């Protein structure tokens, strides 16, 4: 029995199924970001509601975690639109312009943004819930809560930045044929 080496396999650089991976990046960015935003909003909203029963005057001041969680969904939307707009249509014949290189870059970009926003939304939800309840009892904790929320939001922003960098330049399959 002979063992196969990597050079024995041919890799198609522009297969017709490449856009599937690009669109998975679109879906991952939007869906995972929105899950993070929804969790952060729901968890913070529960804390705001509980705090509002005993101190209703602070409800509007403590709405900040909900707004910060909602911004995470916008990050996912931005990345999804950018990636979706750069996916070239696949043609079933041989002139597919969308490469696997671009597809994997777009999938990685979507996962970077989506998972970062999911983590940020979880952090914002937990800090927001506990933080607004604490601020309801002791208003001097407000600035500390906001600082923690800013650092949690930064996690989503890091994912957005990396996703934007990944989604920029790429490899077009037509460029090989033009050079020959």
TrEMBL record:
Annotated Gene Ontology cellular component terms: proton-transporting V-type ATPase, V0 domain; vacuolar membrane
InterPro entries tied to this protein: ATPase_proteolipid_c-like_dom, ATPase_proteolipid_csu, ATPase_proteolipid_su_C_euk, F/V-ATP_Csub_sf
Residue ranges of coiled coil: none
Protein name, as recorded: V-type proton ATPase proteolipid subunit
The UniProt record lists the keyword Transmembrane helix: yes
Membrane topology summary: Multi-pass membrane protein
Keywords attached to this entry: Hydrogen ion transport, Ion transport, Membrane, Transmembrane, Transmembrane helix, Transport, Vacuole
Organism: Eucampia antarctica
GO molecular function, one term: proton-transporting ATPase activity, rotational mechanism
Main location: membrane
All copies of domain V-ATPase proteolipid subunit C-like, residue ranges: 24-83, 107-166
Lineage: Eukaryota, Sar, Stramenopiles, Ochrophyta, Bacillariophyta
Transmembrane region(s): 20-42, 63-87, 107-129, 141-166
